[in-house]
Automatic annotation (TrEMBL):
Entry's family note: Belongs to the bacterial ribosomal protein bL19 family.
Top-level lineage group: Eukaryota
Species this chain originates from: Neodangemannia microcystis
Keyword vocabulary terms for this entry: Chloroplast, Plastid, Ribonucleoprotein, Ribosomal protein
Keyword Ribonucleoprotein assigned: yes
Name used for this protein in its record: Ribosomal protein L19
Gene name in the database record: rpl19
GO biological process annotation, one example: translation
InterPro entries referenced in this protein's UniProt entry, alphabetically: Ribosomal_bL19 (IPR001857), Ribosomal_bL19_sf (IPR038657), Translation_prot_SH3-like_sf (IPR008991)
Gene3D superfamilies xrefs: 2.30.30.790
Length: 94
């Protein structure tokens, strides 16, 4: 087995299979797991949601990312999410 095949096998094992059909223009809610930094001794996790419109989808395989844009208090906010990241809790199409 070559090194390339080994890397491909590891990457394919980490791909998420429960993702919806993500296309540019769809409105989605992305839930991301965040570590709470307020407590220094206990590492608490919380889930933060980000709702907006997909404006870009890039990459392929394990490196696929989506850019989601929303307008919060009159200011446009864009976030880039790697969709196969373990920190990504879920993506829902609204």
């Amino acid at each position: 087995m070559s090194l390339f095949q080994l890397v491909e096998n590891i990457s394919n094992s980490q791909l998420k299979s429960d993702l919806p059909d993500l296309k540019v223009g769809k409105v989605v809610r992305v839930n991301v797991k965040l570590a709470d930094v307020s407590s220094k001794t206990n590492s608490k996790k919380r889930v933060q949601s980000f709702t907006g419109t997909i404006i870009s989808k890039r990459g392929g395989g394990i490196n696929t990312t989506v850019t989601v844009r929303r307008v919060a208090r009159g200011v446009g906010v864009e976030r880039i999410f790697p969709i196969h990241s373990p920190e990504l809790d879920s993506i829902e199409i609204i």
